[in-house]
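Writing this down once: the sequence line spells out the residues, with the fold written below as integer tokens. This is how one looks:
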Amino acid sequence: MHRLGFAYNPTNEAAVDLGERAAGWCRRRGIDHWSAQAGDFDALTGHLPTTDLLVVLGGDGTFLRAARAVATVDVPLLGINLGKVGFLSKAEAEELEGVLDKLAGGRFSLAERMTLSARILPGGRDGGGVFHTALNDVVVARGALARVCRLDVTIGRSHLATFIADGLVVASPTGSTGYSFSAGGPIVDPSARNLVVTPIAGYLSAIRSVVVGPEQVVRCRVVDAHEALISIDGREDLPLEVGDVVEVQAVDRPIRLIEPAGAQPFWDLVRQKIELLPS
């Protein structure tokens, strides 16, 4: 390990302090290092080609912002949790130096996580559109006003349902513990390759959530809405118009997450984290 990167949440004083501890650890061991704000995409992608590992200091939101850059430049990613839940992290702040020692000693493995690709088709017209990458989920939802949307959802060539709801979540297995879970979707093993399709507060809908294979394309058409938007991993919201289609599918190349030796197994982590959630 010759060069480490640290992405942090600049609004979290504890993350800034943790970054200084991480830099001190690197200096003591003669390891080259750099740091950047997790939301600074250009800075991250500029450093990543010469970086061995990227360590994220913050909560799940910070991790997802950094993951956008890693999806572009393939570098393994590790989260050190400073948030409230931290499903995406593999260590807590007090474990920082011990985890870095494991990384330096090669005592870790890599776990592949499927990502999603989403694009907006204005007016439903095929072709074109900017592709957005999500590690957790793509959400089509109503705007600020408390008015439901009418969303027509297809999977491949099959019509699934027309939902009258607050929105729709299309989640990866990694994102199945996030908004999708809060909306009533299942938790899927993160090593799987599936898409989880879950309506948000669906009105008189018999379909609560479905899990589909990675070869399927999920399309969500805005049939009626006073105001609608698409959210990519919660980091950016883009407006949608009636008639627009959001197309979501699995990405072939995964993101690689670091599993330090002795890290808590996923299902033990799920049980522990859910116990921390407010009832």
